[in-house]
Amino acid sequence: MENRAPFTPWPRLINCQGIMKQILIIDREFGAGGGDIAKLLAARLNWKLFDEALSEEIARLARIPVKVCHRHEERTDPWLQRLINIIWRGTFDRNLPSPDLRHHTDTFPVFLYASRELKFQRVLKRVGDAREAVELLDNMDEDRKKFVKHYHGVNWPDRQLFQAMFNTGIGDENTAEAILQLLNAANRNEKGDKA
Fold first, then answer.
1. Low-confidence ranges of the chain (pLDDT < 50)
2. CATH class entry, domain 12-168
3. Contact 98, 85 (CB under 8 A)
4. Are strands 23-28 and 107-113 parallel, antiparallel or unpaired?
5. What pTM did the predictor assign?
């Protein structure tokens, strides 16, 4: 049985220690802090984090700069779609797996969101230019919404695709802790169902 998870455009954490939920998928609004929270969770769970590593691997295999790969991520871009299919699936004509993971018992997808002001402050800190931060906030989630609809045929972010949604305005540490508590509760519940 292969322990490699299907490609998803979101950060995910993979557990190789036998816990029931083996993949924690962190989907998020742009600027909501998903990457930082995923790093906190990976450290606390001692799980492997796949986020930047996916982009780096795609860029390495395609022999392109990582920045080029980033420019094409989560946009309705046939060039990137073909590249991802070649690298992860070995063919031109297969679509990416659906982000609808409700029926996968080993996954635990959560969604992170935040107020526009908090997202603006996070993005501004990263890019250093207010105009660029506003442009990114105005465009990134719209591009992601189009990408998911185009390649997967579902609306993003549809609350039914996730086990939970968290407002990261409570802080990164508190958000990570809330996700851990819910993940642990889900695992206890599954353990009880199997007993």
1. 1-16, 88-97
2. alpha beta
3. no
4. parallel
5. 0.73
